[in-house]
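Q: Please design a sequence for this.
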């Protein structure tokens, strides 16, 4: 049998042998019952039996050869991919050893061959749809020859295998900083956005200082805590767990140390009245949250009274859900607190349970002007002031009918400015919602709103 046969040739030869064997079986079947059982086999019958045994042996050999050929083809097809994936795994292992050395304060080892090849894939992620320059491959070794040739989108590498290409995403873009990072060194959110480790750590740290960023989320989907905790430094990990316990406690039930130089979170006030001793030595009454007052009735906290008095003077409102004090600085009287409670800013009743008006005319005008200004820009307003005014009044009429933005649709707006949520100043660009025209930073568009 020709060793260069392919699978189709083997199947054709096996079919011929099977038909020949079937012919012999038909001949033997036609002779049954015509001879005595103790009669000796004729030379013809012996020849048929011998031929049948040879055909069966040949069929078995063809099946073995077909199986061996399929394994050989699979190895030829997958060798490049297996070699490249092995290179990736080795590079990740070498990165891990380098990270351990850096953490211990030792000298970082010289980059290995695998690390150098993986760093070279950054060029691939930016390459045009054509094979890379062979000069760029010099010095990378034979293993790198399996990493070829095309760019699908940033971070994707195509292995030029037959009968089909094999695609592996080696690098991804961080949704916050835009850096191109290795997939193995990134965090993948449920919404499919990727974070480099630095931006993830920065986000978690920010969430411990700003409760509006908690729980840590992306595109309004919470990030799995068990997935990102192992990526945090030990001190931040402990601090985040403490803050998680604090933020999980209803705001009206939280107890803080009244010592202004301490202000440590001490737990929940739910349950019976008791005294709690802070680590700084201050004893606290769990009922009124003031300093402990043995054998005396509870009194309202002095600082709380001062804040309420200031809120009353400034016209601020108190959320009926968490009792946080909020200020309206733009938009309608429909308020949504950080605790998700929706209420009327004028009377603090739950939203749509009162008869208060929804807008102040001046605030309506200011918000319409802000939206038109954000959408068309200062240059358009200065070039065609009459058109700008017409657009503002058209937007006012639209806002009276529908002022809610149920789902933000973000687009980049070049040029710096102030984020309308966190009030940070950005130098290069802001994100603009196509619906409500709010201008925010990248973090607020992804992690806050």
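A: Design:
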């Amino acid at each position: 049998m020709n060793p260069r046969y392919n699978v189709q040739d083997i199947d054709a030869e096996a079919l011929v042998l099977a038909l020949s064997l079937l012919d012999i079986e038909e001949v033997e079947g036609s002779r049954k019952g015509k001879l005595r059982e103790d009669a000796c086999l004729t030379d013809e019958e012996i020849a048929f039996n011998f031929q049948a045994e040879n055909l069966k042996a040949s069929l078995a050999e063809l099946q073995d050869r077909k199986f061996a050929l399929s394994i050989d083809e699979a190895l030829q097809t997958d060798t490049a991919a297996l070699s490249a994936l092995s290179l990736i795994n080795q590079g990740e292992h070498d990165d891990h050893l380098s990270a351990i050395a850096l953490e211990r304060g030792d000298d970082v080892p010289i980059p290995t061959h695998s690390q150098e090849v993986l760093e070279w894939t950054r060029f691939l992620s930016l390459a045009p749809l054509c094979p890379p320059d062979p000069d760029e491959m010099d010095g990378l070794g034979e293993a790198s020859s399996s990493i070829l040739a095309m760019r699908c989108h940033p971070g994707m590498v195509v292995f030029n295998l037959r009968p089909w290409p094999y695609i592996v995403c080696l690098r991804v873009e961080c949704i916050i900083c835009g850096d191109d990072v290795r997939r193995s060194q990134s965090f993948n959110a449920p919404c499919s956005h990727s974070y480099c480790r630095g931006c993830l750590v920065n986000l978690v740290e920010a969430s411990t200082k700003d409760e509006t960023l908690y729980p840590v989320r992306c595109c309004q989907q919470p990030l799995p805590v068990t997935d990102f905790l192992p990526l945090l430094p030990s001190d931040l990990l402990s601090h985040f767990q403490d803050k998680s316990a604090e933020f999980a406690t209803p705001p009206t039930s939280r107890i803080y140390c009244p010592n202004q130089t301490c202000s440590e979170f001490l737990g929940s006030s739910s349950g019976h009245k008791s005294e709690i001793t802070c680590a700084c030595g201050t004893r606290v009454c769990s009922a009124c949250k003031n300093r402990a007052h043995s054998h005396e009735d509870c009194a309202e906290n002095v600082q709380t009274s001062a804040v309420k008095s200031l809120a009353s003077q400034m016209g601020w409102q108190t959320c009926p859900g968490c009792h946080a004090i909020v200020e309206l600085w733009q938009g309608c009287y429909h308020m949504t607190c950080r605790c998700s409670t929706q209420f009327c800013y004028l009377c603090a009743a739950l939203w749509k349970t009162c008869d208060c008006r929804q807008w102040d005319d001046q605030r309506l005008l200011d918000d319409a002007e802000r939206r038109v200004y954000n959408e068309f820009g200062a240059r358009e307003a200065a070039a065609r002031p009459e058109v700008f005014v017409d657009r503002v009044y058209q937007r006012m009429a639209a806002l009276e009918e529908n002022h809610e933005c149920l789902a933000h649709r973000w687009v980049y707006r070049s040029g710096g400015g102030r984020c309308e949520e966190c009030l940070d100043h950005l130098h290069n660009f802001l994100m603009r919602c196509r619906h409500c025209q709010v201008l925010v930073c990248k973090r607020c568009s992804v992690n806050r709103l």
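Q: Thanks. Anything notable?
A: Residues 211 and 247 are 7 Å apart (CA to CA). The chain is about 45% helix and 15% strand.
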